[in-house]
Every structure is written in C-alpha cells, then in structure tokens.
Design goal:
The chain is of the alpha+beta class. The chain contains 7 helices and 10 strands.
C-alpha cells in the first residue's frame, strides 16, 4: 500500500462526507498521496458539495518531535495545496479512574435543566467573550441565540446519554452561574460543553463545573473521560490540567473558505 484516504460522516442519514478523516502515505510517497487526494476528492464528494474540513490527530509533542512533525506537515501540505488553510489546533485531554476529583465546595448548587429552553438561554449568554474558534466563526454570520441553537441541533441533540447528566450551576439564590454537559460521545464519555456566564468568570467557577461533570461520568463507571479545547483557550486548558486531565494528543483542523 502506497497511500490511503478516507472521509467520515456522522451517520447513515448524511448524504455527503462531514470531514476528511484519514490521509496517509508511505515514506517517500508524498507525490502519490497528493495524486490520491486530488483523484479521490473528485470522485467522492458529490458535485456541488463544498470542500469539507480536514482533521489530523497528532501527538501532544508533535512540534518538537522531528518524526511526528514531518508526518503532520507532509499531510497538511497536501491538503493546503488543494486550497485549504489552517483553522484551529485543539488540545485533547483525558481523565482516568483513580484520578482525584474535588468534593463539592458547597458554593454552587447543581441540578438538571428544566427544559431545552433553559439550556439554550444559558448557552446564548456564555457565548459572550468566547475563545472557541468555531463559536467565533458562527458569530460572524449568526446571532448568539442562533449559534446556540445550531450547536444544540447539530451536535448536542445527537447524544443519547441521559439528559439528567447535564447540570446547571446556581448560587444559593438560584442565579445561574454556568453549566456542564457530561455526555456519552460516539466512542468515549466526554465533557461535551462547559461554560461560565460572563459575570461569574475569574472566580474559580470553571473548576467546580468541571469537577461536577467529572463526578457524573465517574459515577457512571466511565473507563475514561475525553475533552477538547482550542490551543488559544488557555483558561480552559489550565482548568483541565488542574482537574487532573492529561493532554495526550492534539487535533489540527484545516478548512476551505
């Protein structure tokens, strides 16, 4: 085998690929990989379909490991040659059973959401000041409410895990502080979303929200918990590290205009 390529979709209901998932070639066969990419995308993508994002998983230290860097840069160069541009690099985190989880401090109370509208209201609010690249992209063409609804419909509504796992955090007087959405992803238990309302940021609330989400999944005997955040979202990355999550991998996204 000289090269391989594969697209991925989210389910049988999709009539076109959602993203380019695999692009590899044997040592010294970059030209073959490039030829395969150009030939296969013309054959696989339906006519009129926009180019889909390319995602590459890489070791956490890929920039300082010469072999890993050569692999990543060689593959992304092929896609960039086809018109793609770097969009975002993400940190992938993992929590394992046995890692200590802080007990609730009592400062915040946690409860399930009353309904979807309550969740969407808080999601809309936490988009103010977001550092997430995809959320910022949405906000270029949508209102915060529209972006929250799109995120819910396109991603969160697909999770089949109990909605009782999703937690709203409040103060003693009932004022919402933020939320955390522990869920069962397609392959692993995940922290699907965590956010703090702007008025409550910088007070350590993110640590308590993340701990609550971790407790929910740990109580369900999760063999591991996965989560991601953008490299540029340093506050969230530091919160994962404080919570005992290890940065085990990176995720590189390229996109077409």
């Amino acid at each position: 085998m000289l090269a391989r390529i594969g697209w991925w979709c989210r389910g049988s209901q999709d009539d076109a690929p959602f993203l380019l998932d695999i692009l590899d070639y044997a040592e010294g066969e970059q030209d073959t990989g490039r030829l395969l990419f150009e030939t296969a995308r013309a054959a696989v993508l339906p006519e009129g379909t926009a180019q889909v994002n390319y995602t590459r998983f890489a070791p956490a230290d890929w920039r300082t490991d010469p072999v890993a860097r050569r692999v990543v840069e060689g593959r992304t160069a092929i896609v960039a040659g086809g018109g793609a541009r770097p969009f975002v690099e993400r940190l992938r985190f993992e929590w394992r059973p046995g890692t200590p989880v802080p007990a609730p401090s009592g400062r915040l109370s946690f409860r399930p959401f009353e309904d979807t509208e309550e969740l969407l209201t808080v999601m809309t609010e936490v988009l103010a000041g977001t550092l997430d690249a995809y959320s910022l992209l949405d906000l270029r063409t949508m209102t915060p409410r529209q972006a929250a609804e799109a995120h819910y419909e396109d991603e969160l509504a697909r999770y089949t895990s109990p909605r009782e796992w999703w937690r709203l955090a409040t103060l003693a007087d009932g004022e919402p502080v933020g939320f955390v959405l522990p869920s069962q992803g397609g392959y692993h238990p995940i922290i699907a979303y965590v956010g703090v309302r702007p008025a409550h940021r910088g007070r350590g609330c993110i640590d308590e929200l993340l701990a609550e989400g971790t407790r929910v999944l740990a109580a369900a005997d999760a063999p591991r918990i996965r989560a991601t955040t953008d490299v540029g979202n340093q506050p969230m990355a530091e919160a994962f590290l404080r919570a005992g999550y290890a940065n085990y991998e990176r995720e590189i996204h390229l996109t077409w205009d």
